[in-house]
Amino acid sequence: MMDNTTRHVLECLEEDARISHEKIATLTGLTIDKVDKIVKELEESGIIRKYKTVIDWDLAGDENVYAIIELKVSLERSIGYLPLVERLYRFPEVRSVRLLSGQYDLSLTVSGKTMKEVAFFVAEKISTLEQVQHTTTHFVLKTYKEDGVILHEQDHVSRLPVTP
Amino acid sequence: MRKACTPSKFVADVMNKVPPSGIRRYFDLASGLEDVISLGVGEPDYVTPWHIREACIHSLECGETSYTSNYGLIELREELADYYAAKYGVNYNPGSEVLVTSGVSEALDVAIRAITNPGDEIIVVQPSYVAYVPSVMFAGGVPVIVSTKLENNFKLTAEELEAAITPKTKAVIINYPNNPTGATMGKADLEAIADVVCEHDIMVISDEVYDCLTYNGGHTCFSSLEGMRERTILLNGFSKAYAMTGFRLAYAMASPKIISAMMLIHQYSMLCAPITAQIGAIEALKNGKHEMEKMVRDYDRRRHLIVSGLNRIGLKCFEPKGAFYVFPSVESTGLTSEKFAERLMNEKRVVTIPGTVFGEAGTGFLRCSYATSREEIEEALVRIEAFVNGL
């Protein structure tokens, strides 16, 4: 079970990956040295995987298209999913790979410059893999929320300036 | 021609005795200003968690728009009883010892009216929430003020309480974690108070609306102390913990005789709390813990930010262990609380509330709420620093 201090540090970084350790120290009441130490341990243990930026690529005018690909696969008893998954995630076009419960086995997020490019990638590189029995491609039309961040403008709710 | 009417002569005498709300004045002053950062808000800056709002929307879609039992939905009262049993080890009968009200404000008013005979003295511990004194006066009671002190971290001491008790004393109203100071009282502190109220045979109205907002240590529920269950009218609500201020939903817990008396007033005035809010409250109790704890951790970080910032600027404040207020002293600046707050608002557009609004014990202090975004707190600190340095 994670202690409360570690949780505070992680929540600060989750909200803003660029937050300074000095600021974390102010917000948590810890010394900067202590924050340095905690963050270093979290990085080394792999709890902090990497620091990344959530970008609204649509707003930036980038032409990328994204698709969610559902895969139905056949399994060889002695091998499991891993060899296939490793083949899949090495493609830079494949942004995420998840093993799912339910009707499909794997879900991929694939990106490309055009719908055609993504469609050909799936047809040529994914569907042709021996273990892949079936694919369903869903193109992403609009992203409203990404990694916990809402990407479209919301109405601002205002409070009274003074209340007891 | 008929005789002219003078409406003012029909207004009850007590209305002229109750002082106007100091908060109201600052509200009016702040309302006209642009580019204002407000540390004057006594409510969470979060919107009610979506799962709670969604439960309310669903109930409306299902047509749940009726009155409920005067006591409140039994499902809600049962959830509340379970919650208190699990969290504080104090058992209330959901059938006879829980009354759901429209906000702690109503619960407070009804509780005071239910126990006060004309001339009874009710002890109000200050600095405190602005409604306590007027509620006692409206009920025909006599408010007796006890002032807590910074040197005791604004805790009520047994000696201070005992000195205020007379043969006419009926009850004492306490509020920990405290608005406006952020003070809390631990189990040992409260045990000393319990001894005094027992010895003098008085009731305790314990407003514990900030019970979930404690930092560095949990909350002690007054009625969980040995022998205090029958002697306590416990008030709590959903506004602060679950960011549900506008739902106006709260409750009182007490012995059946007291709840029946409160119920008499409640059924003929409020009838029942709004059903939609009650359904939201059930959802909050069932599934709201995770999000609530996340909000509390966020308040905790802002608390560190504002306390260290104010101390750095030279506005000394003790470390508040609960609620979402910090109560710095402005004495070092040579200004009164009112002057400081008014000038800070006019010159730097930062709204704070002078401590005197919460009673004489708040003289020389300022209430700053940190229930506002981190960016706003940071900007407010920059402006306050500039203001103090410019004095």
TrEMBL record, chain A:
GO molecular function, one term: sequence-specific DNA binding
Domain of life of the native organism: Archaea
Pfam families: AsnC_trans_reg, HTH_24
Gene3D superfamilies documented for this protein: 3.30.70.920, Winged helix-like DNA-binding domain superfamily/Winged helix DNA-binding domain
Classification via SMART domains: HTH_ASNC
Keyword field: DNA-binding, Transcription, Transcription regulation
InterPro entries, alphabetized: AsnC-type_HTH_dom, Dimeric_a/b-barrel, HTH-Siroheme_Decarb, Tscrpt_reg_AsnC-like, Tscrpt_reg_AsnC/Lrp_C, WH-like_DNA-bd_sf, WH_DNA-bd_sf
PROSITE patterns xref list: HTH_ASNC_2
Domain annotation HTH asnC-type: ranges: 2-63
Protein name in UniProt: DNA-binding transcriptional regulator, Lrp family
Originating species: Methanolobus vulcani
Automatic annotation (TrEMBL), chain B:
EC number: 2.6.1.-
SUPFAM superfamilies reported in the protein's UniProt record: PLP-dependent transferases
InterPro entries (UniProt xref): Aminotransferase_I/II_large, AspAT/PAT-like, NHTrfase_class1_PyrdxlP-BS, PyrdxlP-dep_Trfase, PyrdxlP-dep_Trfase_major, PyrdxlP-dep_Trfase_small
GO biological process: amino acid metabolic process
GO molecular function: pyridoxal phosphate binding; transaminase activity
Residue ranges of every copy of the Aminotransferase class I/classII large domain listed in the record: 35-384
Obligatory cofactor(s): pyridoxal 5'-phosphate
Bilayer-spanning residue ranges: none
One Pfam assignment: Aminotran_1_2
Protein keywords: Aminotransferase, Pyridoxal phosphate, Transferase
Known partners and oligomeric status: Homodimer.
Similarity-based family: Belongs to the class-I pyridoxal-phosphate-dependent aminotransferase family.
Protein name: Aminotransferase
Origin species: Methanolobus vulcani
